[in-house]
Amino acid sequence: MITAERMAAVDENAAALGVPRKQLMESSGNAVAAAVREAAAPGDAVALVCGRGNNGGDAFVAARFLDDYDPPIHLLGRPETISTDIARENWAALERAEYDTRVVRDSRDFDLGDPDVVVDAMLGTGVTGALREPERSAAAEINGTDATVIAVDVPSGVDADTGEAAGVAVDADRVVTFHDDKPGLDSLDATVTVADIGIPETAELFAGPGDRRLLSRPSDAHKGAFGEVLIVGGGPYTGAPALSAQAAMRAGADLVRVACPRAVAREVQSFEEGLILRPFDGDHLTTDHLDHVHALAADHDTVVFGPGLGDDAATLTAVRDFLADYDGRAVIDADALQVVPEVETEATLLCTPHQGELRAMGGPSADDWRDRLDAVSDFAAELGHTLLVKGAYDVISDGTDARANRTGNPGMTVGGTGDVLAGIAGALLATQDPLDAGTLAAYANGLAGDRIVDRQGYGLLASDLLPEVPRALWGGYDE
Ligand SMILES: NC(=O)C1=CN([C@@H]2O[C@H](COP(=O)(O)OP(=O)(O)OC[C@H]3O[C@@H](n4cnc5c(N)ncnc54)[C@H](O)[C@@H]3O)[C@@H](O)[C@H]2O)[C@H](O)CC1
Ligand SMILES: [K+]
C-alpha cells in the first residue's frame, strides 16, 4: 500500500536515479492499453476521456497502443491548459500523428457516443475536492452508460488515500493502478490491478530528494510549525550538546534548549550565543536532576538524550529512570543507547547507534547492507523502537518498514558528525514519524557532508555541516 504523498516522493526519487516521469507515463499508458484489450472484444468501440493532468497523459500514451480500436480521445478543456509538460508532449504527439483527438471546451460539447469500453483518465491522485465542470457532467455521463469503465490509477473524483469522494465520482468496473495498491481502492466495488511501471526498488528503499517533500507538509499535530527540542547532554564533553543543539536549530526547530550540568554550562554556551541553557547542578547527570529534566521535557515536543553525557554509572541510571517515566518522543544517542534494551518505556524512541553501539545494545551485525536491512528491522521490532544504524549505508527501520541512506562519505568519520545527526533527527521527530525523521535526518546530514567534500575535499569538521543543513533539507542543490 502506498499513499499519494509517498508515491510523489518515490516518483521524484526515481527521477533523481535517472528514470524520469515521462518514462513511467509510457509504462502506465501501456498498462492501461493492455487492460482495454483484455476488456474489449475485437471491433468493440473504445473511448478515452481525459483530464488535463498526468492522469490524462497516461491515456494519451494508451491511445498509441490502441490503434486497432481507433478510439476517440476526448480532452476535457483546452490543450493550452494541460498542466504538465509530459502530458502536453504526449497530447501534441497525438495531434501530429492524426489520432482522433476531440477537444471538449464545455460540458455541453461532450458527446461520449455509445462505447463498449470507456477509459476514465480525467483525474488521478491530483484531485482536490468535488469534481468541477466539465469533469462532473462527464462522470455522470460515463456512469450512465452500459460500457465497461476502466479507471486509470483511481476512479476520477475518488481520493486515493481514503476511498472517499467529495461529490459525484466515476463508478468504475476496473481500476489499473500503478506501482502499488492505494489505501482508498480497497473499499471500492471494482476489480483493481496493480501495474508495474518500472520504478526501481531503490527509489523507495533509498532516501532521496523526494523524501524532503514531507517537510513542506504543515503538521497540525503539534504546536508551532516545527516544534521545540530539548537537548539533554554534556558533562564530560561540551562540544557534543552544542553541536546537537545547533543542528536542531539549522533543521528548523522553533526553539531549542539545552539541559546540561552547571559546571560546563558556560563552555557549552560559548559555542553559540543563540543557545538557550537550562543547567542543572553538578558536573554530570544523576537521578537528583530528574525532576528538573522531566519538567523541561514536558514543555518540548522532542528530547535528544545523550550527546556528551558520558557513561558514568549514575548518569546511565538517570537515563534509565527518566525513560521509564517518559511517554514523549526522544532521540537516543551515544552512551545513553546502552540502557534502551533494558528499559520498559511508553516513550517513542528513535535510537541512532553506529554499528559498534548497535552490537553493544545486543543488536545484530551484518556486512552487507541488504542483510543489515532485515536484521535491523527484526531488532527494531524486538525493541519496539525505531533504529537509525549509521554506516556507509545507513539503515533505518521502525520494525515494519526499512529504508537505507547512502549519502555521506568517509570524511564524516570525524568526531561530532553523529551529534549533528542526532540534533537534526530531534528537530524532525517533532513533526514527522520516527521512520521518516530518521531517514530524512540521515539523508540531509550525509548530503551536507557530500557538498562540503565536493567543494573543499576532505578535512571536514562536524561544525562545517551546520550551515549546510538547511539547504540539504530544503533543496537548492542541483541533484
Ligand atoms: N508514479 C506515478 O504514480 C505516476 C503517475 N502518473 C499518473 O499521474 C497521475 C497524477 O497526475 P497529476 O498531474 O498530479 O494529477 P491529475 O491528473 O490527477 O489531476 C490534475 C489536474 O486536475 C485538476 N483538478 C484537480 N482537482 C479537480 C477537480 N476537483 N475537478 C476538476 N479538475 C480538478 C487540476 O487542476 C489539474 O489540472 C496519477 O494518478 C497517474 O495516473 C504518471 O503518468 C506516471 C507516474
Ligand atoms: K482516473
From TrEMBL:
Q: Which CDD domains match?
A: YXKO-related
Q: Which residues form a coiled coil?
A: none
Kindly state which reaction or reactions the protein catalyses.
(6R)-NADHX = (6S)-NADHX; (6S)-NADPHX + ADP = AMP + phosphate + NADPH + H(+); (6S)-NADHX + ADP = AMP + phosphate + NADH + H(+); (6R)-NADPHX = (6S)-NADPHX
Going by the UniProt record, its keywords in alphabetical order are: ATP-binding, Isomerase, Lyase, Metal-binding, Multifunctional enzyme, NAD, NADP, Nucleotide-binding, Potassium
Quick one: a GO biological-process term for this protein? metabolite repair
Q: Which cofactor does it need?
A: Mg(2+); K(+)
Q: Which gene encodes it?
A: nnrD
Q: Return the similarity comment.
A: Belongs to the NnrD/CARKD family.
What role does it play? Bifunctional enzyme that catalyzes the epimerization of the S- and R-forms of NAD(P)HX and the dehydration of the S-form of NAD(P)HX at the expense of ADP, which is converted to AMP. This allows the repair of both epimers of NAD(P)HX, a damaged form of NAD(P)H that is a result of enzymatic or heat-dependent hydration. Catalyzes the dehydration of the S-form of NAD(P)HX at the expense of ADP, which is converted to AMP. Together with NAD(P)HX epimerase, which catalyzes the epimerization of the S- and R-forms, the enzyme allows the repair of both epimers of NAD(P)HX, a damaged form of NAD(P)H that is a result of enzymatic or heat-dependent hydration.
The UniProt record gives the binding positions of (6S)-NADPHX as 54-58, 124-130, 153, 240, 308, 354, 419
Keyword Isomerase assigned to the entry: answer is yes
Organism annotation = Haloplanus aerogenes
On subunit structure and binding partners, the annotation says: Homotetramer.
**Which residues are in the YjeF N-terminal domain?**
7-205
> Sorted alphabetically, which Pfam families does this protein's record hold?
Carb_kinase, YjeF_N
Record's protein name: Bifunctional NAD(P)H-hydrate repair enzyme
